[in-house]
Structure formats: C-alpha cells, structure tokens
Design goal:
Elements (H helix, E strand, L loop, with lengths): L5 H27 L21 E2 L4 E4 L2 H12 L5 E4 L1 H17 L6 H17 L4 H9 L4 E6 L2 E6 L6 H12 L8 H4 L9 E3 L1 H13 L4 E5 L4 E3 L7 H17 L2 H30 L1 H4 L2 H24 L10 H10 L2 H16 L5 H18 L7 H24 L10 H6 L1
Length: 426
C-alpha cells in the first residue's frame, strides 16, 4: 500500500528536479565568475569615475607606475660598472709556456721575433681576456666600463679594450702580421696560449647593483587621510590612476586576501542564487505551462547559464570586449519558441547575472537592456525572416545611440568618445 498518491510522488520528483537544476545553475555560474581580489573599483585612464566622491580614509604613499620604475632602474643601471677579478697568474703561465715553445720549437724563431710575439701576448693579457660566454653577456649589457680587481686594487677599464679568446687571436694575428714575426705565426698556434684571465665577480657586482636599485624611490608623493582623491564624473588621468592604484595596493597590505576571496565568493553566490530563484518563481507563478515541461525548463536555464559563462571567460582572459557577444539572441530564442513576456523576464535576469562579471555594470546593464527591449518590441509579431535582418540593424543603431547618450550625460563631448567600442557593436 502506497503512503502517498501517484500525483504527490510525481510532484515531489518534479520539485527535487527543479531544486537540483537550481543548484546546478547557481554552481556553474558562480564557478566561472571572475574573482579579482586586487581591485576594489573599476577604472581606466581616459574614462569617467563612475562612483561617488572618493576620500582617502588613511595615509598612503603615491607609488610610481611599474613602467616608470623600470625606466628609472634601466637608466641607473646604464652607469653601473660590474666587477671582474683579474688573475695575473694566468697571463704569466701562458706567456711562460709560449717562451718555452719558441725556444724548443723545430723552427728556429729569431730572438727579435720571439720578443715581438711575447710582448704582444703580454699586452693582450694586461688588457684582459674574458671567456666567450662572459664576453657575450657583457656585450649584451649596457655597461661601457668595468672594474678590474687585482689584489686589493680596482681599476676602471673600457669594455672596448677587452677581448674574448677569438678577438684576442685576431688582434695578435693583425698586430704581428706587419712585423718580422709574421712568417712564424702559423706554426706557433697562438690559440693554445689564450685563456680567460678575467672572471665576473658576482658577489660584489650583485651587491652594488642591489644597493643602487634599493636607493631608487618608488614613491611619488603622499596622500593624507581625509584628502579628496576624485569626484564622480571626473576623468581618470594618469596621476589619478596612479593614486587609485596606490590606494588599492596599500589596502591590499592591510587586508587578509583569503578572507576577501571568501567574502567575494559568498557575495557572488547569494547574488546569483537570488536571480535564479526569482526566475524560478516567475516560471512557477506566471508560466506554469513551461514550468511543467522539462524541455522548456532546460532551454531557459541553459540560456541563463551559457551567456554568464561566456562573459566570465571573456573577462578572465580579456580576449575582446563583452559587447561583441550577441546577447539579443537569447531574447529572440525565447520569443520564437515561447512568448514575449517570458523572453523579457529571461533576458533581464540573464543580463543582471552577467553584470556581476563585468567592470562597468551600469553601462553594461543599460546598453544590453536597451537591446533586449528593442528585440522584443520589434518581434512582437514575427511573420518573416527578413524581420531578423532588420532587427540586427535596429539593435546596432540602438547600441550607438544609448552608448553615446550615456557619455553625454556624464558631461563628455562627442570627440571624447572611444570610437573603438562602436566596432564591437557591429
């Protein structure tokens, strides 16, 4: 004997299915939403400040931009002189071996020629020979002078006077070619007596380099608590942008990042859950004929999931502007297969869910709701396919008009509009 009638069992199954669908929809949307914990406001250079008057509630330094710090660092390091340790024993050893070779060789080298070869090699070692790798690295650096350390003394030497083993050989060959020693050079094989006698002193070089970098100032002013930073509608210039960025960084130091992520996740979950719940109640109270059909419910919830996920992926990866996404297709879809009122409610709630992922929520909501209303009004009586093409043109004009009007409302002239955004509406 059944405790509950068949109708109640079916109703219970339908309720469980709807609850599961609700939970899946909320979970999928929240999973893909961006959670940027570093920015508390959305602002860009050349764009108006969309929030109210912003006053600093604590003291903080105005930090230089990363680009400026890098430029100053590169400029200072151009004058940096790295340290190289000169090993005099290397030169003495190789010169000694060369002398033995000249005296004991099969070919008798005249004393004058021997003296010319030895002096030329000694001159090369006195300038300094670097290994091929060190020489290549030094050429890539911006330093034009190095410090040669010999014992307790350090001497500055121009990089142009240093040699790699290859350059040292070419220098010797060219120098001796005009002397009486020239005929004997091929048989001596001078490459055997060329060895690096300069080695990079990483300890002293890196210490001095770090001291130079630490001496650079990362600050460019100071903001006091209670000081006004920017008012609503003001254009964010480079200075204000850096002040706002400095505030964000200082606030980041004072705030627990893990706690912020948790709070963001909780807020996103509550917001999305409310929107999806309102949509479910709309279907249950006003469109029960769709609520009872699983196919219709799956179609509507799919639209509620797909577009917020697309927007979230775009915002995370910055592929292109979100305005390139054809949101109006959702309204067209629901209007064609169901009715205008269902299309309107579905579209509005979908746009509200999408707005939580974008930077400029107000601008996004106004522009997309305008497109949605145009779509539903235009397709009130759908009789031919040509209406869809005409609709695309009307929506584009609507985009242009509402975007331009929003910027005019903020007090900006038409010449200050970002023309690139219009291409995303096409």
């Amino acid at each position: 004997m059944r405790l509950l009638p068949t109708f109640n069992n079916k109703a219970r199954r339908d309720l469980v299915n709807h609850i599961l669908l609700f939970l899946i929809t909320v979970s999928v949307i929240v999973w893909f939403l961006p959670r940027n914990t570093s920015k508390h406001f959305n602002y860009e250079i050349g764009k108006p400040w969309i929030y109210g008057s912003f006053i600093a509630n604590f003291d903080f330094p105005i930090l230089k931009s990363d680009e400026r710090i890098k430029a100053e660092r590169d400029s200072v390091l151009k004058s940096f002189k790295p340290y190289y340790i000169q090993n005099d024993e290397v030169g003495k050893k190789q010169v000694g071996l060369l002398k033995e070779k000249l005296k004991s060789g099969d070919q008798q080298v005249p004393a004058a020629a021997q003296q010319q070869i030895v002096r030329a090699l000694e001159a090369i070692y006195s300038e300094g020979i670097l290994s091929a790798g060190d020489f290549k690295t030094l050429v890539k650096d911006t330093a034009s002078v190095i410090r040669k350390v010999s014992g307790k003394n350090a001497f500055e030497t121009s990089v142009n006077k240093l040699y790699s083993p290859k350059l040292a050989y070419e220098k010797l060959a060219a120098q001796l070619s005009a002397t009486s020693a020239a005929p004997y050079i091929p048989s001596i094989n001078l490459n055997e007596y060329l060895e690096a006698n300069l080695k990079y002193d990483s300890e002293h070089s890196e210490k001095e380099k770090n001291d130079i970098i630490k001496g650079l100032s990362v600050g460019n002013g100071h903001i006091q608590a209670g000081q006004r930073i920017i008012d609503q509608g003001e254009i964010v210039d480079e200075h204000k942008f850096q002040v706002l960025t400095s505030f964000e960084r200082e606030l980041e130091k004072r705030t627990d990042t893990s706690k912020k992520i948790t709070n963001t996740l909780i807020g996103q979950t509550i917001f999305v859950a409310i929107m999806v719940f309102l949509f479910s109640m709309f279907l249950f109270l006003f469109r029960h004929q769709y609520y009872k059909k699983q196919r219709n419910v799956l179609l509507l919830y799919s639209l509620l999931i797909i577009f917020p996920v697309i927007v979230s992926v775009i915002m995370k990866n910055t592929f292109f502007s979100v305005y390139i996404v054809p949101f109006a297709i959702a309204a067209i879809f629901v209007r064609v297969f169901m009715d205008s009122f269902t299309a309107l409610v579905t579209y509005v709630l979908m746009i509200l869910v999408c707005s939580i992922a974008v930077k400029y929520q107000f601008e996004f909501i106004v522009i997309q709701l305008t497109a949605g209303f145009i779509t539903i009004y235009f397709l009130r009586e759908l009789s031919s396919r040509s209406q869809v093409l005409a609709l695309a043109l009307v929506i584009t004009l609507g985009y242009f008009a509402i975007y331009s009007s929003l910027h005019l409302v903020l007090g900006n002239g038409l010449q200050e509009l970002d023309s690139r955004i219009y291409f995303h509406f096409l």
